[in-house]
């Protein structure tokens, strides 16, 4: 991905958490602060388009085609861009690139319309053409992930004409879409910052600083790129590495604003100080070893450009440039993301036959909380798994005439946990509700061990697979240490874990699973996780920026994936 991150694609944003600590929600709130100021994880993509056999070939039809590309949001089309017009061609290859941002965590439906431009309009610029005055040649629809997941990122679509009621769609040819990451996405700059003599902002303790890094736009407005983790009670903090790519920065001469904030749990973080430097100047700071004094706007100055220079300084302790394979490189080379699902069948969910149960199946078809989480995550991940065979388990229930099971196959099979696709999960989930008795307690250890065993077997077989285990729960785990031990073991394998809390329970005690707490998990034998693999969030915990909790959790997956690939030195080879 093209997002900025800490310590290999986001580790600073999701360092493994610990049980309730003084860091409660620090980095979580700081992440929301970053998002609220407009930052997001995305990679710039260039689409190249070509077509074949446009129009009616029986009459040696040749046209003057143009492609108009739209994004689709609940059926509403928003134009992204247009190609140039190719004169007198039934199999054109357009030079103009369509530029858009790829975001792993959201579906990105694309609609392609091809028009034949009447010769009388050939002197009119493409953006000025009135499409309703042109002949419609065909339409193609796909998701951007359809293209990204194909080998060589090359996807061919049949042109249809459904909304325009044109006859004989077989005569309207094909459209080929090829996606390429911008060159700047692969040119990376890694930096380590530390500060000295920060001002004390808290009355009863030292400051809890973090850095927010923004690119200065042409009009002087800062555009956030990334943030560091929060350092608790530290006036001389050193943060984990941040990694930015050239796409985000623009060029090494572009100015960056580096702001140091003192974390506040209410989201109103106090500005400690800031500097404005280009990447080239930051590199020079590293080579010289010199620090730069923070400044703040002068409080009593009439001139808005006046500033007060502080004694606090920021240093660049490390600066490194390199080029690496990206998340998209691995995916298009054939690496698959395989979803695994585990559903809570403990008694605290309530009687499934009653409308107030979290497991109530509404006759109207309205999904319950469990179904909503599975559908939202499954709708994204299914494009990265060609086979769509999904291991699915339940936990915390008593099968007919059996003891309580903390990891049973949803499909009722003794040996085979896989179901066919997202609808297979839905069917097995509902069937299991009829065939088990809700019980308890809530244990994650057996689930995590089972999922890790599958990931381990895949690794042994040298398969190009990475697994994502989704656990949906309505309560707090009771096997804390067993869960921690299983998480730490899982960190050595191609596996990420997403835990989503549903219902009205108090999930405070689950915060030891939240990766944004700044601590680290330690096993019963003293081991720590080799990398960050787990995230937790309650479904009711909604971001204020239109970003769902599920999307914010999924957004961390590419970083965890890349950390695994890089630490294992696994190359993206087609």
From TrEMBL:
Cellular location(s): Cell membrane
Keyword Signal tagged: no
Gene3D superfamilies named among the record's database cross-references: C2 domain, von Willebrand factor, type A domain
One GO CC annotation: plasma membrane
Domain annotation C2: ranges: 23-157, 171-295
The UniProt record lists the keyword Iron: no
Alphabetical UniProt keywords: Calcium, Cell membrane, Lipoprotein, Membrane, Metal-binding, Plant defense, Repeat
Main location: membrane
Topological category with respect to the lipid bilayer: Lipid-anchor
Protein's UniProt name: C2 domain-containing protein
Gene Ontology molecular function: calcium-dependent phospholipid binding; metal ion binding
PANTHER family: C2 DOMAIN-CONTAINING PROTEIN (PTHR10857:SF106), COPINE (PTHR10857)
GO biological process terms on file: cellular response to calcium ion; defense response
Pfam families: C2, Copine
Entry similarity comment: Belongs to the copine family.
